[in-house]
């Protein structure tokens, strides 16, 4: 009996943490659910989508439910199933790990539209959208600028796991840095975890010991690395969402994800009664990715001008970013 | 590989290994004390998490790092009291109750972080202290002998705990409660009180371990510990329930982790193997555990609730 009570208490605490938050629903509203692997304020991947949804909520008149911190795919699958059963109109599975669940649920709930990413696969299903980020583009710009600004000509890049937009960003950063200067050394490491800020911090410390004066990284666990950059007066380049609040004196630029153009297309098509089955990619050209320079950091105008040229080159196709290893 | 064998990289790697070992060492020493008294506490990771969050919250709002550390220790002690109550007074199955404490702390810290903090913000770290004379050693002195006070404290506690266990009456009582509680009881030793004190003190060290990890990273995030508390429990077995053994295990784990990180950064470990390499510290520690620690036996009454006349 005591064992059962202890387990029940723990489950209750976890359940309380996982309860989806919802805004009140009025008549004829769309019901939209966001399932994400990290917190809505992670300064990274989830925050980019959450922010876009909040910005569009009034215009498209939808009720938003958010289930965050769903690292465990099995739990996320249960929540998605629950949303679908409750008649949600759009379920956004914001993580490439949710693909199999979307593939399984979408045929069972044809009246519900699913969107998932980052990925390009709709599985041939007419109620599934897929979305991805050409993060190598912003990575290239960041790498180029970083290489120009580095005094030691050693850069440190920390990825979580070498998959998806994290790998694209890292590969793009390396290519950009090398394009700016052949003598720049770019050290790359993957921690093996999307959620371990401690490992990120330790890897960043190793890079500092290896003379890196510029750091960058991807995933919500970069907060650990940013702190190391701040303490060691290194420069920081971000991706997915601005992390300038953590190190305003060190953050030079960020590749911002803006999912609003993508979401606008999805909502417009839903309102028009059109089927899904499409795949979208956010890029510098279509405005889904933007390079945001940190206002609190004085980036030399000449560097900004060079970055603008690179952005234009990528957008027009003049600059081709080589594929990573 | 030659890039690794430079004085700067080697000393930075060793310094990183020492830092990485500190939270494991503190948590393992605490667990050693508890297990020597006969109580298996699998809630170490949860206690570290709550200690880290409490320390973070206090540091964020008061900027008083000493107070943050004290609060982290106090939270550890409070959870130790709860653990002791469940394990000693209620005589619950210790493995299950420890996992319950862990799950509770994991959920509560995530919830509190979201509701009370939201966007993660960095906190200041304790200032680094220089070890007199040693920090002036050429090339390696500054890197190796300039650490924050919590790291030094972890290493200082090794001989302290060894002294307590081997040279004090309370230490003898702890070992008696863990080996043969009935015999200890017959000699007038309060097994319950001995175990309560051991678990509370051990959990306080787990809370301190959480604070050490927090100040090493400089920021809190959900599940900050990433199951380090469970590694700490394994290191107790590795160390054969002796402070010096626990020290060696913690250093082995920390150094392996630091070398892997360094090799990844230098490209010695290719990206394609980086995920596999991340598991190396755990694999090496488990292999060492299997080969070394099998020669030692655990406290005879470990995990067994004591009932007088039972």
Brief rundown of the structure:
Chain A has helices at residues 2-18, 45-60, 73-85, 99-105, 135-149, 164-180, 197-209, 223-231, 260-271, 301-316, and strands spanning 21-22, 30-35, 62-67, 90-94, 113-117, 128-133, 154-159, 185-190, 214-217, 235-240, 251-257, 279-282, 289-293. Chain A is α/β, with parallel strands linked by helices and 325 residues long.
Can you tag this structure with a few keywords?
heterodimer; A: 325 residues; alpha/beta; seven-stranded mixed sheet; six-stranded mixed sheet; 10 helices; 42% helix; globular; B: 310 residues; mainly alpha; 13 helices
In words, what does this structure look like?
- The complex is a heterodimer of chains A (325) and B (310).
- By secondary structure, chain A is an alpha/beta fold.
- Chain A has helices at 2-18, 45-60, 73-85, 99-105, 135-149, 164-180, 197-209, 223-231, 260-271, 301-316; strands at 21-22, 30-35, 62-67, 90-94, 113-117, 128-133, 154-159, 185-190, 214-217, 235-240, 251-257, 279-282, 289-293.
- In chain A, the strands form two sheets. Chain A has a seven-stranded mixed beta sheet with strand order 1-3-2-4-5-6-12, sandwiched between helices. A six-stranded mixed beta sheet of chain A has the order 8-7-9-10-11-13, with helices on both faces.
- The longest helix of chain A is centred in the N-terminal third of the chain and has 17 residues, at 2-18.
- Chain A is globular and about 55 Å long.
- The N and C termini of chain A lie far apart (56 Å).
- Residues 4-8 and 10-27 of chain A have low confidence and may be disordered.
- Chain B has 310 residues and is mainly alpha-helical.
- Chain B is built from 13 helices and two strands.
- Chain B has a two-stranded antiparallel sheet.
- Chain B starts with 6 loop residues before the first helix and ends in an 18-residue tail after the last helix.
- The mean pLDDT of chain B is 90.
- The chains are: A alpha/beta (325), B mainly alpha (310).
- Chains A and B meet through helix 1, strand 8, helix 7 and helix 8 of A and helix 1, helix 4, helix 9, helix 11 and helix 12 of B.
């Amino acid at each position: 009996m005591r064992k059962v009570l202890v387990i029940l208490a723990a489950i209750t605490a976890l359940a309380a943490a996982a309860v989806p938050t919802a805004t009140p629903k009025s008549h004829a509203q769309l019901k939209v659910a966001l399932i994400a692997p990290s917190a809505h304020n992670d300064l990274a991947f989830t925050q980019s989508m959450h922010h876009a949804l909040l910005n569009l909520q009034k215009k498209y008149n939808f009720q938003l439910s958010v289930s965050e911190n769903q690292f465990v795919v099995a739990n996320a699958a249960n929540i998605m199933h629950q949303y679908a059963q409750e008649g949600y109109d759009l379920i956004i599975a914001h993580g490439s790990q949710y693909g199999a669940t979307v593939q399984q649920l979408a045929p069972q709930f044809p009246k519900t539209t699913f969107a998932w990413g980052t990925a390009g696969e709709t599985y041939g299903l007419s109620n599934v959208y897929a979305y991805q980020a050409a993060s190598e583009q912003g990575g290239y710009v960041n790498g180029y600028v970083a290489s120009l600004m580095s005094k030691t000509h050693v850069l440190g890049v920390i990825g979580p796991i070498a998959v998806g937009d994290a790998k694209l960003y890292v590969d793009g950063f390396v290519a950009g840095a090398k394009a700016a200067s052949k003598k720049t050394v770019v050290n790359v490491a993957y921690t093996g975890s999307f959620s371990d800020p401690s490992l990120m911090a330790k890897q960043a410390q190793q890079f500092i010991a290896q003379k890196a004066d510029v750091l960058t990284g991807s995933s919500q666990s970069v907060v650990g690395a940013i702190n190391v950059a701040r303490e060691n007066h290194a420069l920081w380049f971000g991706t997915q969402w601005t992390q300038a609040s953590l190190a305003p004196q060190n953050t030079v630029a960020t590749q911002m994800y803006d999912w609003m153009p993508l979401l606008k297309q999805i909502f417009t098509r839903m309102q028009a009664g059109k089927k899904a089955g499409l795949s979208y990619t956010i890029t510098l050209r279509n405005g889904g990715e933007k390079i945001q320079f940190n206002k609190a950091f004085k980036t030399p105008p000449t560097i900004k001008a060079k970055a603008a040229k690179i952005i234009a080159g990528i957008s027009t196709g003049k600059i081709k970013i080589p594929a990573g290893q | 590989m030659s890039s690794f064998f430079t004085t700067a990289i080697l000393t930075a790697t060793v310094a990183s290994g020492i830092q990485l070992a500190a939270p494991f060492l503190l948590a393992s020493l605490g667990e050693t004390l508890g297990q020597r008294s006969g109580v298996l506490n699998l809630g170490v990771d949860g206690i570290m998490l709550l200690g880290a969050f409490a320390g973070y919250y206090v540091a964020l709002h008061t900027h008083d790092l000493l107070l943050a550390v004290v609060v982290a220790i106090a939270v550890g002690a409070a959870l130790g009291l709860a653990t002791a109550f469940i394990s000693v007074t209620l005589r619950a199955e210790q493995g299950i109750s420890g996992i319950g404490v862990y799950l509770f702390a994991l959920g509560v810290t995530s919830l509190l972080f979201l509701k009370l903090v939201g966007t993660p913000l960095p906190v200041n770290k304790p200032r680094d202290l220089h070890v007199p004379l040693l920090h002036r050693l050429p090339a390696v002195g500054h890197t190796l002998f300039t650490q924050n006070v919590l790291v030094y404290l972890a290493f200082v506690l090794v001989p302290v705990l060894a002294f307590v266990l081997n040279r004090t009456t309370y230490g003898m009582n702890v070992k008696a409660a863990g080996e043969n509680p009935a015999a200890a009881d017959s000699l007038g030793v309060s097994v319950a009180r001995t175990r309560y004190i051991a678990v509370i003190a051990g959990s306080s060290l787990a809370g301190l371990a959480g604070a050490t990890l927090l100040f090493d990273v400089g920021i809190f995030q959900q599940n900050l510990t990433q199951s380090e508390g469970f590694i700490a429990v394994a290191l107790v077995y590795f160390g054969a329930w002796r402070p010096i053994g626990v020290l060696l295990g913690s250093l082995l784990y920390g150094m392996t982790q630091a070398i892997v990180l360094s090799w990844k950064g230098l490209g010695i470990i290719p990206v394609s193997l980086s995920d596999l390499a991340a598991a190396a510290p755990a694999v090496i520690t488990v292999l060492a555990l299997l080969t070394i620690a099998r020669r030692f036996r655990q406290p005879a009454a470990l995990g067994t609730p004591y009932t007088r006349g039972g």
